[in-house]
Each structure stands twice: as structure tokens, then as C-alpha cells.
Fold this sequence. Notes:
Elements: E1 4-9, H1 23-40, H2 45-50, E2 53-64, E3 73-84, E4 87-95, E5 101-113, E6 119-120, H3 123-126, E7 152-158, H4 172-181, H5 185-190, E8 193-200, E9 209-216, E10 222-229, E11 234-243
Antiparallel strand pairs: 1-3, 2-5, 2-8, 3-4, 4-5, 5-6, 7-9, 8-11, 9-10, 10-11
Helix pairs in contact: 1-4
Amino acid sequence: MDIIRDTFPLGFRDIDRLDHLTLAAAFDYFQEAAISHAEILGVGRESMAQTGQVWILSRMSVLMERRPKFRETVTVRSWPRGWEKLFALRDYDIRDASDIPIVRARSCWIISDMEKHRPLRPQAVMETLPLNEGINALPSGAARLESRNNLVKTGERKAAYSDIDYIGHVNNARYIQWIQDAVQPELLEEAEKMRLDINYLSEIKSGETTDILCAPLGETGSFAFEGRKADGQAAFRAELRLWRDQAGRDTGA
């Protein structure tokens, strides 16, 4: 199965007050698709653990060009895309009932040695998987984000039970909820198009407190974020861009 597909109606838990799919819900869908596809392809959690390896999400970019609504039927797809240097690539999209992609994404994963906690070259694993050459969901996605010196603390989050996944650290989709909660609700609700780029830099474990810092970018309706742990180490960096309509007019933030 080169590309995994799952078709279903959007659930009530995945929309906001104005009946729009949220970014965090899209990340949840993509996470489930990646995990399920890895299992089918023989490189899932247990198979990798037998060789002392684990998948770690390093970067992800999601472009939501239209936000589907409650009970709208969508198809979530995901597929491996080969590798670049130390990164294994995986693409995703969400398609509407007319088979038009309305959400597109690209992720970069690191294959890490479970004992030494060091990245391994991905070729040995990725060469056994479909390359899906030419099937690019978001070719310009998943870039490295730089630290900014104008960030201001807007809040903090303490990693609790519901934040932690089976690996023992904050789940990648939970970071997106934290970012959403740092933005004025009206801006997110009124945005008809949005893009989020995020770099996962260091794990956050249960009980750790993370400061959420934010600053506006040069574009109106755009923000930079950083999650910073108590020791000053950056846990993640992200950039969020919001547009009010399909023509790309901004939110007026």
C-alpha cells in the first residue's frame, strides 16, 4: 500500500465554535495515518523496537486551504516520500468529497537509536518503502526555523497526564493545542486559510513547565512561537499564518 487512505465524516470534537476544522485536529488525523501506515509497511513501533530504533517527528508544515465542517466527508491520505540527509519524509493531505486536496502537509522524521539517543541514517529503512516519486503534497514544507530575539512570554503550560504519549513525553499534536490557545480565539475562528510550520527541538516530560513565547511576524496575521523549558532550552519553534479568505486577504490581526 503506497498511500494509505481513510474516508469518514468530520467529528464534533474536531471543529471550533464556527464549525471549522482545527489545526490540532488535522495534526491528530495525520499522526494516526502515519502510525497506521508504518504498521502496514512493516516499520511500526514494535518492528522498529526490535532493531533498537524509534521514529521521532522533527519538523512539520501544514497548509489548510479550506476548513471543512462538521459531518463533511473527507479522505485523509499519507505516504512516505524518501529521505533527505538525516530526515525521512512523509506527506499528507485531506481531500473533500470531490477529491480536491483542501489540507496539505509534509513532515520530516528522524530514526533514532533507542539506547544511545542518536539519529541514524534513514536509508536502510526508507529504501524498503515506496518512494512515491512526484507525489508532492507540500514541496516547500518542513523547513528549519530560527530563534527570534523579540519573543514575549504569553503564558505557560505544565505537562499533565493528557499531554503525554506512550513514549513518555508531550505528544506532537498537543503542542499545536498549546499554540492555538496562545492566539486570540476570534483570529483562529475567522481564518479560512492557515499555515503552521513547527520544529520539534527537545522533549517535554510529564510535570515539566514550558513557557510559551510569541511575537508578530512581518506579515499581518502571522506569529512566531517558541516553547522554552525551565533551563532555557527551546522545546519547539513554530510560525503561524492566518488568512481570512481564499484570495489570501489577511485576518487584520
